[in-house]
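Cross-check.
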Amino acid sequence: MTRRRFIGSAAITPSLLVLLIGILESLLAANLTPHNFVPFMLSLWLPGIGLFVLGLIYLFTSGRV
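Predicted model, tokenized:
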């Protein structure tokens, strides 16, 4: 995908996903999340919103705006 210039060769999105999932998992393990967070997370609203925000961040930081 980098050859076709869909993404840059130093895309940070995968590392951000791993970091955010690690933070969420540690908060869940420490019981620091609201009681209705797990159903919200499993309803695909959280992944949808998260991937949309990461896409916007990548769009604005890639210099293609």
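The mean pLDDT is 79. Helices lie at 13-29, 37-42, 45-61. Passed to J.P. for a second look.
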